[in-house]
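hey so i finally got around to running the thing on that chain from the lab meeting. sorry it took forever, my laptop kept dying and i had to restart like 3 times. anyway pasting the input first so we r on the same page abt which one it is
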Amino acid sequence: MNALFYRFILIVFVVISCSENNSKQNNIMSKPINIAFLHHSTGGVVDRGNTSKIYYKLFGKGDVSKYFSKYNKENGIKYNYQSIIFPQKDKYGWNNYPFDYYNIWVKHAGEAPYNGEPTLEILTQKYDVVIFKHCYPVGDIGFDKDQPNVDSDERRIENYKEQYLELKKKLHTFPQTKFLVWTGAALVQSKTTPEKAQKVKEFFEWVKRDWDEPGDNIFIWDFFELETEGGLYLKNEYASAPGNSHPSVAFGGKVAPFFCKRIVDVVQDKADNTSLTGW
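ok and heres what got predicted. didnt touch it at all, straight out
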């Protein structure tokens, strides 16, 4: 009798646990989710993917938008994806380095925009997931001086680390919002030096290994790995032209689904246990 009783209790416990997990998953799947992708030109290559340039210009919808339209229809959910140029060139300037995110979101935090750009206080009111990245000049760095300065816009790894640490503190103050950070876009070999390229690779390894923490609201998409395939430079066959560090349309089309998969993993609380590349 005791054995039967305990078996009954175990079955009840399993059924309840499964019901709770299913309920949680159904809630994730059914709740409308607003997603913002903040980017410039390299991000636009991935956002567009293999979509024709004319269509993308006219309607602002590329492979990533199409992916979510299809995904929503097939799964009966609503992931509202929006591609946003950030920062804008005319007011703030065409810079999206670690300093600039720190400058806008930490140093000038608040309910009002800074130089026309939305702060995290503004973005988190509208979006459940905020994605941001750096363009390839992030790798055009100077060498460290053993004088890290969080308020400096000089592109040095020691400054990047200070700015990333302050950004992490700030992102953690919005626990209801999830943040997806790209590792930086790589330079082609002809536009950098082995020393600079090695330092940049080491920085993004630090971002993945030390800066990112499992269990928090910050996640990584390892774009640098996809562009370099473990090396130091944007592979020549992935470049838009010889000597040009913009990725090609073909490469954008190749990795756009990986980006989408990574976003879905973040939304559905799977990102700590799945591939950083989405592949």
